[in-house]
Amino acid sequence: MKIQPLKQFLLLLHHEFTAEWRQRNAMGGVLLYVVSTVFVAYLTFKRIDPLSWIALYWIILLFASVNAVAKSFIQNSSGRMLYYYSMANPLALLLAKLTYNILLLWVIQWLAFFVMQLLVGQPIQDVFMFLLSAALAAIGVAAIGTLVSAISHKASNQSTLMAILSFPVLLPVLMLVIKLSKNALDGLDRFVSYDEIWTLAAVDVLVIGVALLLFPYLWKE
CB 3.0–4.6 Å: which of 28, 44, 90, 201 could bond 219 by disulfide? Predict the structure, then answer.
């Protein structure tokens, strides 16, 4: 009996969490990278000026996010992909991996923010706007990374292709979120950031829409 797409999505999402729990070393490595990088910056600078704080935060998040999302499809063996192909709806599979990656990046963002606040303090005046823009950026990064990971899975040199393809597409998201971070740092009125917030949300919707359109064709190859 064929399983409904919604049930497939929930089963696949549960499988993503189960697989991550079984392979805790990979997730532990990402979290250790976040904590150790902040700690090294703390030992080196002791005090970080506000603009350097934002730069350090997004450098950490960029590399941690790409490494975390890259394994979406790359870590899957050919046998598992064949099993998915024969049993799962491609959109249910993509949405399950995308949802998991979004939740994972949110955890990494909150952890990085907490660790940096604990060790070096945080100069952000509008914390809500900063975290909102970071959460929206995580959706875009997760969508881009998930799709690029699926494309890279078809290639031989997967890690290199992942880095080459993802960085140019991530630039619009990074430019928007850095501008929003600067506004939150300065404590500007929130209406000043509304245009960038809506633009970032529109980029997220566009990227997810493109992923949903392209993935079924990529899935057939």
Answer: 90
- Euclidean distance between CA atoms 136 and 63, whole angstroms: 17
Residue 177: closest CA among 118, 133, 120: 133
- What percent of the chain is helix, strand and coil (3-state, nearest 5)? 85, 0, 15
104: CB partners within 8 A, 6+ apart: 20, 27, 68, 69, 142
Give the tens place of pLDDT for each residue, 3-55: 576 777 788 777 777 766 666 666 677 778 888 888 888 888 777 888 889 98
DSSP E strand stretches across the chain: none
Tokens of 190: 């929130």
What are the tens digits of pLDDT across the range 77-91?
A: 555 666 566 666 778
Q: Are 203 and 175 in contact (CB under 8 A)?
A: no
